[in-house]
Amino acid sequence: MTKTQKQRLLSGMAYQASDPELKAERIQAKKHLYQFNQLEPEANSQREQVLKQLLGSTEESVYIEPPFYCDYGYNIHLGKDFYANYHLTILDCCKVSIGNQVMIGPNVDIYTACHPIDASLRHEAGYEFAKPVSIGDQVWIGGRTVINPGVKIGSQTIIGSGSVVTKDIPGGVIAVGNPCRVLRTITEADWTAFSEENPH
């Protein structure tokens, strides 16, 4: 049986984004996003309801500062106590899984969308494909970070601002740069060195 373009998208196969069903779903997502981004600043409960309609799943205490942008919404799954600052963009052409107690800085981009290397396949045939992104628990992602397709980031890791994450990053580390590389492991000394008066 021939797969629909949506079935191909969800299964990681090459698909054509010009498909009418996919175009309609992106329009529906944009309607939810327009509503979310236009709500009054104090309308937190209404924004939460819009996110529940838009996203694949959310746990308790999820907050995204508007404006927020995504492709489909239903491929995004957020854990509890999630916070994202302004201008989060998620190209969710396949699954994006984000764990509990994750903090995301402003202007962060998360991409699952990929395009063929051959120009004729990109432009004439219109093919795309996607690779999932996974982010563990208690991760902090600094502002202006770009997370590329297929990347996994382990729990309790910090990604420094301005990083371009092209490969998997393990848990419990500080990683920075373009391309993003592990700088060092997070240790108990990072806990004992902290003080309210001098919070390094």
Automatic annotation (TrEMBL):
Family annotation (Pfam families): Hexapep, Mac
Organism domain of life: Bacteria
PROSITE patterns cross-referenced by the UniProt entry: HEXAPEP_TRANSFERASES (PS00101)
Annotated ranges, domain Maltose/galactoside acetyltransferase: 6-60
EC code: 2.3.1.-
Keyword Transferase: yes
Keyword Metal-binding in record: no
Family: Belongs to the transferase hexapeptide repeat family.
Protein name as it appears in the record: Acetyltransferase
Upper taxonomic lineage: Bacteria, Bacillati, Bacillota, Bacilli, Lactobacillales
